[in-house]
Amino acid sequence: MSNRDTIFSAPIDQIGNFTFDERVAEVFPDMLQRSIPGYSNIISAIGMLAERYVKPHSNIYDLGCSLGAATLSARRNIKQEGCHIVAVDNSPAMVERCKLHVNAYRSDTPVEVLEADIRDVEIDNASMVILNFTLQFLSPDDRYTLLKKIYAGLKPGGILVLSEKYTFEDDTMNELLIDLHHAFKRANGYSELEVSQKRSAIENVLIPDSISQHKKRLTDIGFSSAEVWFQCFNFGSMVAVK
Description:
Layout: H1 22-35, H2 39-53, E1 59-63, H3 69-77, E2 84-89, H4 92-103, E3 111-115, E4 126-132, H5 140-153, E5 154-165, H6 171-187, H7 192-202, H8 211-221, E6 225-232, E7 235-241
Parallel strand pairs: 1-2, 1-4, 2-3, 4-5
Antiparallel strand pairs: 5-7, 6-7
């Protein structure tokens, strides 16, 4: 049972930028379940995609792995031999807990958990790369550079799973989906104060792209296919195939 997220439950005089620190790591599972619609479905499907696309003697990268949910989902479903998972996060608190979670389960597929900047990690011999709500925290220029590196390191037929918060070109629809997301959070027990303060903390840190921006970037880089396979309100996940 994870600790309950109460980080923004009391009034904060000066709201700083959201960071993945020790306090966030402590309540992260609860925060994700109550903040991201469909999160559990996305994690489950990552395992299904791993079963289908991971090739023997290849690498799987989970970039921005946080506590390792996507890593473990992929690991549980990999049926091929000689595979190796590299899980990367730049938060010491997340990496520490991710190692504990990974080590709690025995598996034929080894996992290497690295504390590093995902922009500095070499991608090589990959059949699957996971960016689960990670790319949105990079600057637009860094997003393109990272995706180009991922494409270069993917084997032919390899996949990128890209989960993100989306923005929409149509202002009416964009506001509707934002409002529905906030209603989802309130239905999960967050107060108006928590919703408001979290939004203030994250608005300068998480800069979302539209679905069309994502697709154009991926096809420009060279991916043969890129499509949304899951969406709920302004959150979703795409699969791109090399």
